[in-house]
Amino acid sequence: MMDTKLTIKLDKDVIEQAKDYARQKHQSLSVLVEQYFRFLIVREQEPVLPDLSPIVQNLSGILTPTETSQAQEDYTDYLERKYSS
């Protein structure tokens, strides 16, 4: 990978807040900006699920199909134990 310098103009307050944020995260501002650009690029390439609220869209994909299947089985077992008295 070849690093290239980029010059951008931003509001001074935004720059100061971003620098503070980067310091808190123990990362350079350049790394944070690059990560954000990568996030935007990947997000654009992923299909957006239609008719789902933004919260559900953000949560989708957190569990793998195997984890989802196991979670469903665990919940079913829980409900059977709870209501089979």
Description:
With 85 residues, this protein is mainly alpha-helical. The chain folds into two domains: 10-46; 49-85. 65% of the residues lie in helices and 0% in strands. It has four helices and no strands. The chain has helices at 12-24, 29-45, 54-59, 65-83. The longest helix is centred in the last third of the chain and has 19 residues, at 65-83. The radius of gyration is 21 Å and the shape is elongated. The mean pLDDT is 84.
Shape descriptor: elongated
Distance between the terminal alpha carbons, to the nearest Å?
A: 62 Å
Q: Which blocks of ≥5 consecutive residues have pLDDT under 50? A: none
Domain module tally:
2
Q: What is the N-to-C succession of helices and strands? A: HHHH
